Amino acid sequence: MNRRQLLTVSASSVLLGTGGCLTNLGSWDEESTENDVPGCMQKEKWTTDITAGPAAPDPNSIAGRRDCANATRPEPTGDVCKTIELEREDGEINEFHSTGVEPYPDPPTAFDEGSLTEYVHEYERAYSKNGAVSKYDYSGNAVSVAVGIDERETQVLDYNDKITVVQIEFGVGVETRHSDGGGIASDQLGEVAVYAIDKSGIVRTDAEYTHDEIIADKIPDLVEEGTLLECF
Length: 232
Hints:
The chain is an alpha+beta fold. The protein has helices spanning 3-18, 62-65, 113-134, 222-225; strands spanning 28-32, 83-87, 93-97, 142-149, 155-158, 164-177, 183-198, 201-207, 227-231. The chain is globular, with a radius of gyration of 19 Å.
């Protein structure tokens, strides 16, 4: 199995297991907007200030080179926790729960290679899921989001006492339900992200999948060109 196939299986397996068939759907019967979805988290429960950062950052650190006030990342807003009841052609009701938001991990407490690799994987799962919930009016309609990371292809490209660079490959699978009764399943395969992280913050850069290439080597300055996600 090659990497693209692995990512396809990883990102799609949850959708196939929970979403069911996307064809032969009836019309909407009723939609409830009460926040009674088990395990569904609203954005309002997040309290992390991603723009704080250190009071006097090292000028060569991420927080020292970027304005922490500009930190941004996907954070779904509004009511993302809904129960959706869909009437089938035989009169039975299928019930779906929207997927809600995924909490971002707390800032790392250890900065060795293994700890930072695990942290980046967890951060990307939250980043990709929340991005899918927010994108294209999915908010409230995304009933399943699966993120598959090819851990074998994770590369720690630069590791020192200052800034660590981590390149990952992943795939995202999304299933949505819409007001016309239709359902859509989509996959984004072979995605690449490059993270730069130190004790003051984290930045992320999107890149196109290119087989067996180190994408980060083609980015002149990851700290300057990446999206500042959070200051610690």
